[in-house]
Design goal:
Radius of gyration: 38 Å
Number of domains: 2
Helix content: 25-40%
Number of helices: 18
Number of strands: 19
CATH superfamily of the largest domain: DD-peptidase/beta-lactamase superfamily
Oligomer: single chain
Strand content: 15-25%
CATH topology of the largest domain: Beta-lactamase
Mean pLDDT: 86
Length: 577
């Protein structure tokens, strides 16, 4: 009995133990499930809050921005494409930047906010900042293009109502060097001059760089020589170009004064004026090239045709005369070499108004130049076009064109007679280059022979470069002003092609109002300034462009400088060339 009672009591104790273990396990399981659910809820809540913070911070705008946190706006889209030279050298690029703006209505203590902001943006006064914050506008920029440090410090101020806007800033690594070609953008990164303006849509819609025809190496040489000429001769400005006569590509183009596009304040109207494409000028005796070519091409004359230059030419109350009288009947070659105004006028009389006008139209001189820039000047053409106009145009007065028109036209005269539209965009390798024949090949060859004599025997001798057979023409044109022409204010220019045995490039230098120096005996014609500058340019860029000098004997006899002898006799400066 005792054993039975013990077994019963043991069973009860075992049952109780088993019962207690089951309860404990169920409690543990319930607690574990509750913890898992609670943890899941915390994770979900954290995810929701994190997502909301991301949404508010990046996408929702100022109304939902967390207080005391300046916000960044969404990306602004595709970056503006880079601009490079023909060899891939960077001319313009965009860097990411941040601008600071405010919603003034969200800023409570504007005076306190202004003091704090001015403590970071030290070039702004607290009163200036406060004035902006007190404006009634809902949105106002406080500073464009912050530095990373400024962005961090502004953000650390914890001022509600301040926001950051992502953007890009245009940078021009070459500075002034390509200013008039590349141009610049405004504060909103929109093109306002040069390629930046004319190719605005192209630059906004592409990812690969826009490749220009400019060669930075040649551009550097050209600009350096222009700067030297302006400095040496105390000129008011200058311009120059180098064009590939086979393609119409501008390998270099510069205009002085210029500006640094990285600093918008330096872009004054005078500095932004592109003399190469926007300025229109009477080009003086360089225009005699077109008069001579027209005579040759229309069969009106030959290099040996003669014209009476024994005495001044009087016509319609005007008198045309030369400074160094030839006192004979001169050939067309001599008229160009000696730069005779009388001879050129008589040639124009033979050619006639209609043929002259038609020829100049063929050479692109009666319409604005076609090039990828917004700064394009229109030629000034006489209307009506009378016989006296025809005579003065023959030696570069009475009609004004841009230097670019001059370079493009002369390129056609020396490349065998084919006209190419000028361009600042590089042609692709193997690309067909559109061309229009404007003069016979024989005309081109005959004119180049005359141009070579201008350099070897005439006023262009200071532009000669051994091995390159430079061919060219000087021009010194009096500038017009109130009451007529200003005798001592010249546009001095020289245009040349090289190498003479197979022309590849045309080079132009034009100097605005050069002054005489002791080294030039006080003389200011192209013989003394523009022609030597072209010679210096050719001597440097010839080897650089892979043009090997030819082994030609250059011990050719040179005549005394015509400009020196003529001016010594009291001649008008403009009439020398």
């Amino acid at each position: 009995m005792t054993r039975f009672l013990d077994r019963v009591q043991g069973s009860r104790r075992g049952g109780e133990t088993l019962h207690l273990d089951g309860e404990r396990n169920r409690a543990l399981e319930t607690g574990r499930n509750r913890l898992l659910v609670t943890g899941a809820m915390f994770v979900l809540a954290f995810a929701v809050i994190s997502g909301r913070l991301v949404e508010v911070t990046l996408f929702k705008g100022s109304a939902n921005a967390a207080p005391h946190i300046a916000k960044s706006s969404a990306d602004i889209g595709v970056e503006r494409a880079d601009v490079v030279d023909r060899n891939g050298v960077l001319l313009a690029t965009s860097l990411p930047t941040v601008s600071l703006y405010a919603h003034p209505k969200e800023i409570g203590d504007k005076a306190d906010a202004a003091r704090k902001i001015a403590s970071v943006l030290t070039d702004m006064s607290a009163s200036d900042v406060q004035g902006k914050l007190r404006e009634s506008r809902a949105f106002i920029y406080l500073r464009r293009n912050l530095t990373p440090r400024q962005e961090y410090d502004i953000n650390a101020l914890g001022i509600p109502g301040l926001y950051f806007e992502k953007g890009e800033k245009r940078i021009y690594p070459q500075g002034e060097l390509t200013a008039h070609v590349v141009g610049l953008t405004d504060l909103d990164n929109k093109g306002i001059a040069g390629i930046e303006r004319s190719e605005e849509r192209e630059l906004k819609g592409r990812h690969e760089p826009l490749r220009l025809s400019i060669d930075v190496r040649v551009q550097t040489i050209l600009r350096n020589e222009l700067v030297k000429a302006v400095t040496d001769f105390s000129a008011v400005g200058a311009t120059g170009m180098v064009m590939d006569v086979r393609t119409g590509e501008l390998v270099a183009m510069a205009s002085l004064p210029d500006f640094n596009p990285n600093y918008l304040s330096s872009a004054t109207p005078e500095a932004m004026f592109n003399r190469a494409t926007l300025g229109v000028y009477e080009m003086g005796s360089t225009f005699k090239l077109f008069n001579t070519a027209a005579m040759l091409d229309d069969g009106v004359g030959t290099p040996t045709s003669t014209f009476d230059v024994t005495h001044p030419l009087e016509f319609a109350g005007f008198t045309i005369h030369d400074t160094h009288s030839l006192n004979k009947w001169a050939t067309m070659s001599e008229i160009l070499i000696e730069s005779s105004n009388i001879g050129s006028a008589r040639m124009a009389m033979e050619l006639g108004i209609d043929r002259q006008r038609e020829f100049l139209g063929r050479m692109g001189l009666l319409r604005p130049a076609s090039v990828e820039l917004p700064e394009i000047g229109a030629p000034l053409i006489p209307n009506p076009w009378r016989e006296i106009n025809s005579m003065t145009i023959a030696f570069g007065h009475g009609m004004a064109v841009t230097p670019l028109q001059m370079v493009t036209g002369v390129s056609a005269l020396v490349n065998g007679g084919e006209f190419h539209q000028s361009t600042l965009l590089a042609h692709a390798d193997g690309e067909a280059i559109p061309a229009t024949r404007v003069v016979k090949r024989q005309t081109s060859e005959q004119l180049r022979q005359m141009m070579r004599l201008v350099v070897s025997e005439g006023t262009g001798d200071t532009a000669d470069v051994p091995g390159y057979q430079v061919e060219g023409k000087t021009g010194s044109a009096e500038k017009s002003g109130a009451g007529g022409y200003r005798r001592k204010a010249l546009l001095s220019s020289f245009i040349a092609t090289f190498p003479g045995n197979d022309p590849r490039y045309v080079v132009l230098v034009m100097i605005d109002e050069p002054k005489g120096t002791k080294a030039t005996y006080g003389l200011i014609q192209a013989h003394w300034n523009a022609a030597p500058a072209v010679g210096h340019i050719i001597a440097q860029i010839g080897p650089l462009l892979g043009l090997t000098p030819s082994p030609v004997d250059y011990d050719e006899p040179k005549k005394p400088a015509l400009a020196v002898n003529a001016v010594a006799k009291g001649a008008s400066l403009a009439e020398v060339e």
